[in-house]
Design goal:
The protein folds into two domains: 2-237, Spore Coat Polysaccharide Biosynthesis Protein SpsA, Chain A; 240-360, 2-Layer Sandwich (Gyrase A, domain 2), CATH 3.30.1360.20. The longest helix has 18 residues, at 299-316. The chain has eleven helices and 17 strands. The chain has helices at residues 31-42, 55-69, 86-91, 112-120, 180-192, 197-206, 226-239, 247-250, 268-273, 299-316, 343-360, and strands spanning 2-7, 25-26, 29-30, 46-51, 73-77, 101-105, 108-110, 129-134, 149-153, 156-161, 169-177, 210-214, 220-222, 280-284, 287-295, 321-325, 328-333. By secondary structure, the protein is α+β, with helices and mostly antiparallel strands.
């Protein structure tokens, strides 16, 4: 199935994280790459990305990504991105896509199973468009002032928009579409001179052609400002399937370490190592340390993983030695203040292992 991704916006509220919103790294992986990887996992096999702001940089990034992942990725430049709404970006792909397709937003991070189950559903047989909706109105990841609201009746969307008063669900930005969405948006554009995606969906809803698909409480977040970026970082970590053996260490936080803090004992080390079996106990300059070597397919993946370690190290205020090479990252944890191993080092080793799945899927 083809996948259309809207990546034309400037993302002014996230300027602190990076100049080009689609290329802002979340745990070392660009938002746009995360969207493509999630769509691929859901079953998409061809990608169309609508660009606008910083399109040259985004195009160059996508060319490298397509080569690295061996995926067909096509870019479509929305020449009107500065003066029009997101519906015009969707409409930009009308000459490229002529069959049902997955429609995603570059700044929405989500559980790939949502899109996979949406594609597998029979909704496309009964609707011109189906939107994955979140019925969890108390979802703590939602910005109530910015989220698009949806009212659903008997599995059909009856109303959609940021300002509607009566609603029972949220728009996740994950759509299964037919080309009918292009016709609806073209009609809106001709009538108003602009086109929001939600207005086109509303037009189809009036005709009874807009369905709703329940995400059943699964993870999604719109990464649109510094607060949601922080929430996304924390949610990505907590959403990972953690092995039972890892629960004890991974779920702990590093404690402030003083010069007189105790080192872990020789009796404690074997038990703690059993929870991080891929780490080796090494002895350098008279100091016990934990070390693991991670391997990757190229330097880009190795660098992304290194950046993700840096982010969690800053968050926990505990920092490792990292050696980044082509296809390899060597991570070493120990506590400088006590010249040995503290429980913090084992906690961070467990968190580093978990980052591997967050960063590289």
């Amino acid at each position: 199935m083809k996948c259309l991704i809207i990546a034309a916006g400037k993302g002014q509220r996230l300027q602190k994280e990076g100049a080009s919103k689609p290329l802002i790294p979340l745990f070392g992986v660009a938002l746009l790459e995360r969207t493509i990887l999630s769509a691929r996992e859901a079953g998409a096999d061809a990608f169309y990305v609508v660009t606008g702001a910083h399109h040259d940089r985004v195009d160059a990034f996508l060319a490298r990504l397509a080569q690295r992942l061996q995926l067909p990725v096509h870019t479509i430049f929305n020449t009107q991105w500065q003066d029009t709404d997101n519906g015009v970006s969707v409409l930009s792909a009308s000459q490229e896509i002529h069959e049902p397709f997955l429609l995603l937003m570059t700044d929405h991070v989500f559980d790939p199973s949502i899109a996979r189950n949406l594609i597998q559903s029979a909704h496309i047989e009964h609707n011109s468009i189906t939107l994955a909706v979140d019925y969890q109105l108390d979802n703590p990841l939602i910005d109530l002032d910015d989220v698009t609201r949806v009212h659903v009746e008997d599995g059909k969307i009856s109303a959609i928009g940021k300002g509607i008063k009566a609603f029972n669900a949220y728009d996740t930005g994950i759509f299964l579409c037919t080309p009918a969405i292009f016709d609806a948006l073209q009609q809106v554009l001709e009538e108003t001179g602009n086109a929001k995606l939600s207005t086109g969906v509303q037009l189809l809803a009036v005709a009874g052609q807009a369905g709703a698909f329940d995400i059943d409480g699964r993870f999604w977040i719109d990464v649109d400002d510094p607060v949601s970026f922080w929430r996304a970082e924390n949610a990505l970590l907590s959403q990972q399937d953690i092995d039972t053996e890892m629960n004890t260490l991974f779920n702990k936080q590093c404690a402030a370490c003083r010069v007189d803090a105790p080192q872990v004992t020789q009796e404690e080390i074997p038990e703690l190592l059993s929870e991080i079996p891929d780490w080796a106990l090494i002895h350098i300059d008279g100091i016990n340390r934990l070390q693991r070597i991670y391997t990757f397919s190229d330097f880009i993946e190795a660098l992304a993983f290194t950046n993700s370690i840096g982010a969690i190290a800053e968050q926990e205020a505990h920092h490792p030695a990292i050696l980044t090479e082509w296809g390899k990252v060597t991570v070493t944890w120990w506590t400088h203040k006590i010249k040995g191993l503290h429980i913090n080092d084992f906690i961070m080793a467990a968190k580093t292992d978990q980052l591997l799945s967050v960063t590289c899927g």
